[in-house]
User: What shape does this take?
Amino acid sequence: MNSPHKPRKRFGQNFLIDQQVIGQIVSAINPIPEDNLIEIGPGMAAITEHLVKRCPSMSLVELDRDLIVFLKQKLADFPDVTIINSDALKTDYSQFFTGDKMRLVGNLPYNISTPLLFHLLEARTMIRDMHFMLQREVVDRLCAGPGDKSYGRLSIMIQYHCRVNPLIPVPPSSFNPAPKVQSAVVRLTPYADTPYKADDPKLLRQLVSLCFQQRRKTLKNCLSTFAAYIDTTNPPIELTKRPEQLSVKEFVALSNSIHQNKVSLDESFHAR
Assistant: This one.
């Protein structure tokens, strides 16, 4: 079925057309009929038409109304497919949770990929895995370690919650229109139990965000807001280090130390 649909720049649409890459992605996902499979931004159904043969009851989240019409026609032989016209950034993914954890896939619009990943983390306990096509630069950030120029807030928060596996490099020629950047497919698998547990996850998020607003400064200068809760005589982490030098484990240790000192000081204050 041919479609006159023209990719829309405002939706960040770059449609995947490389059949070899599509085959590799479908093999990496390896869906089965019982999966609770959700595709974000199915576009022209390049991946969808292969996935739906293996998982006929999958769900699709698509923002472009013109594509909704196209998808309903394209997938008319699959009556159990659910198509939702919704903005991926505003979608409540818990609506798809049926007791079976979700498997999310998608060629994500590059202009919203980072905020969308943070949005999806909110539903992580309901997600089995995620396979996403992203800008290569974003995949590099997801995988980066301490000392890497790509290492930052996104690296730490995703790695805290998920196992990260880069899978398939994808060149611009695999898309229509061809983007000006390299792309890659990545698998994110939320941990059932995080390797390093933060006593106060909200504090960890605040700490990481604060540090990477000033990534070239030392921890001592970055964390002046928390100075009252840091034991400078016996700090959990060397305070002359810069944020980009700390591992996920070290950020968690620092967060837990601040949390424990804060609790102790608050208890002492209320005991007076």
Remarks:
- The longest helix spans residues 248-271.
